[in-house]
From TrEMBL:
This is Delta(14)-sterol reductase LBR. Residues 76-97 have a biased composition (Basic residues). It is a multi-pass membrane protein. Residues 4-62 form the Tudor domain. Belongs to the ERG4/ERG24 family. It comes from Notiomystis cincta. It comes from the Eukaryota. Pathway: Steroid biosynthesis; cholesterol biosynthesis. GO terms for biological process: cholesterol biosynthetic process. It catalyses: 4,4-dimethyl-5alpha-cholesta-8,24-dien-3beta-ol + NADP(+) = 4,4-dimethyl-5alpha-cholesta-8,14,24-trien-3beta-ol + NADPH + H(+); 4,4-dimethyl-8,14-cholestadien-3beta-ol + NADPH + H(+) = 4,4-dimethyl-5alpha-cholest-8-en-3beta-ol + NADP(+); 5alpha-cholest-8,14-dien-3beta-ol + NADPH + H(+) = 5alpha-cholest-8-en-3beta-ol + NADP(+).
Amino acid sequence: MPSRKFADGEVVMGRWPGSVLYYEVQVTSYDDVAHLYTVKYKDGTELALKESDIRSQSSFKHRKSQSSSSSPSRRSSSRSRSRSRSPGRPAKGRRRSASQSREHKDDKKKTVQETSLALPVFVLFKPSENNTKRYNGEPESTEKNDTSCIILEQKLKPDLEMKHVLEQYSLRSRKDDKKKEEIYSEKKTFVAVKPIEKVPSKTKEMEFGGRIGTFMMIFFLPATVFYLLLMCKQDDPSLLNFPPLPALESLWEWRVFGVFVLWFFLQAVFYLLPIGKVVEGLPLSNGRKLQYRINGFYAFLLTAAAIGVLLYFQFELHYLYEHFMQFAVSAAAFSLALSIYLYVRSLKAPEEELAPGGNSGYFIYDFFIGHELNPRIGSFDLKYFCELRPGLIGWVVINLAMLLAEMKIHNLSVPSLSMILVNSFQLLYVVDALWNEEAVLTTMDITHDGFGFMLAFGDLVWVPFVYSLQAFYLVGHPTAITWPVAAAITVLNCIGYYIFRSANSQKNNFRRNPADPTLANLKFIPTATGKGLLVTGWWGFVRHPNYLGDIIMALAWSLPCGFNHILPYFYVIYFICLLVHREARDEHHCKQKYGLAWERYCQRVPYRIFPYIY
């Protein structure tokens, strides 16, 4: 095993990924498995670098050529020389040997190369600006309403960077054209640097209570789902009225399990249809970009057509309501089997394909979080498919089944106003998610979390069976509301949806094209990564305005159920806890990624989700 060269806490020069620029960094840790150093830049950014991309500070000091370091006898004789003669020039009649000439030339080339490495900041920004502060997340003006900084960094090429440095900081006389041409020919071999391939290191910071917490959640999450469904079936769904446990044989039916499996593979067929555009996701740790087919909305339309055909032939869709608990058990069993398959296959996955958050080396933790980041069978991305298809579209189908069950059980010719509101609000939410399917590629679920029990159970069980809790509750506990109350709840939902959609659109448009003229009025804080942190619009109001809109909509979904019981408000209570926890995770990752720029952003936007509260 090779020994490490640099110690923890040592200040060295680290190369910025994908460029020839070196910056002063401090070594914080070393991964013995991946042989990578974790270094911290001055602005707080932490990156993993190979040993070959780190150099000691002493290697950047200018070296003197051999010709200038003459012997004592030569120094004494040089005093009698003419002042116009260069100290490195040999006396008349003396010819320098060929080996000395080559050494002189090579040594001076190294000096030019080292000089270009030691002056990287002038390449990234205009010399007239306070470049050091801007790189460290401290620009002259904290806010900017143009995108020149970001566009400049994206367009600069290594060759142009080297040319700029050589023109301004070359130690060579500009009259020496021949030697200058030699330098330009030599620099091609110097700047042709292969981008760093980051290999995920072991997960050091474990979430959700670590091994013990994740072990308990594997049992706690299914128990919570079953408890909520049993409570909704009771005439008095009070918290103190614990429901009786059903017989185990009543929880399982192979026919129900077969229907669920059929539903899963029907959505898989819709996913594989060659319709919709194909887009690229964000770059992975090795620089590769995966391709995704965006056809979730088409899958929704095909599903709606299939449901319409079933209803036309008088298929009893309220069958879902009558066997709701059995469907939940079937979905839980399927998600558990899928999670086991995902973990087993992840053991053979290459190191660079593992999830940064699920590579702890502990079975329970990695099984829960997800060991592999993007498990695929050919071009079929399992995580991306489960994120929006079976569970989200299934949520709408379940709501429709509850609406029909309400009409049948209570002998209604039309659904109740409360049921219509719940179905309409949640249908809008699902259609919006499928219409803006491409936006999910930038979420933490896709870019950071692996695909394990947490996401498998969440996508296939928690979303369809917990998010439909209001509709399920209204079947057994009808609630009458007046038209003015319905209008007020509708306005509240529209406000939440407007905040949610406009904030997400603002963020996504800025990520895709910061130079969009429609975004010219937005101000941002530049960061060392080349990205900007918005400080105007919704993102200058609170740090997570999309979460605020989500919570307002969640409240609007629960209000049609009245105030007789707290059970239908479980969703909004859970959602607040979920988003507060997710916000804490976002804060942690952003602080590591953006360093001092993120601290400046937090000072500019002090409230996280709720303005003037939190």
